[in-house]
Amino acid sequence: MTTVAISTQLHNPSGDIYALRLLRDAGFEIKLISNKRFSQGNASDEEEIDILQGAAAVLAAGERYTKNVIESLPDLRVIARLGVGFDKVDLEAANANNVLLTITPNANHEAVAEHTIALIMSVAKSIVMGDKAVRDGKWPTESLRPIRGSSLGIIGLGRIGQDVAYRALAMKMNVIAAEPHPNMEFILQNNIQLADLDTLLQESDFVSLNCALSNKTRGLIDRKKLALMKPGAILINTARGGLVVEKDLVEALASGHIAGAGLDVFEIEPPGKDNLLYTMNNVVMSPHMAGNDTLSVENMRNEAAQFVIDLFNGNWPDDAIVNKELKNIWTW
Predict the structure, then answer these.
(1) Whole-number Å distance between alpha carbons of 292 and 294
(2) How many other CB atoms are there within 10 angstroms of residue 267's CB atom?
(3) pLDDT higher than threshold 50 for residue 213
(4) d(CA 320, CA 322)
(5) What's the gap between Cα 159 and its chain centre?
(6) Which residues of 70-95 are buried (b: 16+ CB within 10 A; e: fewer)?
(7) How confident is the model at residue 81 (pLDDT cuts 50, 70, 90)?
(8) Which of 216, 236, 331, 229 is nearest to 283 (CA)?
(9) pLDDT at 39 over 50
(10) Which among 136, 190, 189 is positioned nearest to 168, based on CA atoms?
């Protein structure tokens, strides 16, 4: 029987999980993985290889798929990532070993957009500091930042970026976007200003990172780019921590050039105890949870499971497949 491995991080044992029923009804054997180090990406290659041995497909959470791991799993045919990021998978190794990589493009973009807006509001309205002050018996009266009439620069106008734009426009924000492959119909219909990255940084009161992490975008927001931002601007990152040079952000925040930041992702996750971001009152942090509300997790599980079933049955879910170049040579 063909085995699909699933981290228990993606499985609620108290409920009937539709994705598991889908896979079982399609004839797959389910291997539930309870190793927390594995699901958080902290297991060694050797641990991962031992855990995944014999699996033909995996519904992947936060674990890493290095060259060594992929080459050591001869039965592996599909890595079905929950979410749209795939920077933890060595794509070159996947291609070389005829392993398909899928993402779930339709499942969690709204959840990430909601979290992006929540971070904008939390920083601009000093929600966390206000809560702490009231609990400490204080009653601060400083004026807060308005959202309406301000400019939001969105770096990356894919599904997530577009959903962020919809919500920002509803709050009467002006939206600027930097996107190498823009959907002009969406841009024109919503009166969005298309700009290069430097112009966006110079003109935006809030900047939201909603692009993928790649060799081209790693360290995208560094000291030079932060210096271009409006004095007093706020940076929001719900994409990938590697997009921002964290030490440069700390400097910009400490100097006051950047008024605040809302961060769901970090260069190292979880951040080390000595991370200076912990000491900054103008930073709101969350534990890489933007895409993981209950509805989006269910949708991601179901979508990933369906892609595994489709591929097993000889169907090609084109929108979900990252390494499309394998189409004519891949076999189960």
Answers:
(1) 6
(2) 17
(3) yes
(4) 6
(5) 12
(6) bebbeebbbbbbbbbebebbbbebbb
(7) very high
(8) 236
(9) yes
(10) 190
Q: CA-based Rg of the chain, rounded to a whole angstrom?
A: 21
What band does 9 get if pLDDT is binned at 50, 70 and 90? low
The CA angle 121-249-261, to the nearest 5 degrees, is 5
Q: What mean pLDDT comes out for the span 87-112?
A: 95
E strand spans, 36-178: 57-60, 78-81, 100-102, 151-155, 174-178
**Residue 205 and residue 234 in contact, taking contact as beta carbons nearer than 8 Å:** yes
Amino acid of residue 238: T
Tokens (6 digits) for 316: 């090609």
Q: Mind listing the pLDDT tens digit for each residue in 243-288?
A: 999 999 999 999 999 999 999 999 999 999 999 999 999 999 999 9
Structural domains of the chain in order of their starting residue, each with its CATH number? 3-107+292-326 (3.40.50.720), 109-285 (3.40.50.720)
Residues involved in catalysis: 240, 269, 288
Q: What is the mean pLDDT of the chain?
A: 94
Quote the Cα angle for 227-164-293, to 5°: 115
Kindly state the helix (H) or strand (E) to which residue 50 belongs, with its residue range. helix 45-52
Q: Which residues of 124-136 are buried (b: 16+ CB within 10 A; e: fewer)?
A: bebebbbeeeeee
C-alpha to C-alpha distance for 87 and 139, rounded to whole angstroms = 44
pLDDT at 15: 46
Collapsing DSSP states into helix, strand and coil, what is residue 141?
coil
Strand-pair partners of 59: 6, 80
Amino acid at 64: R
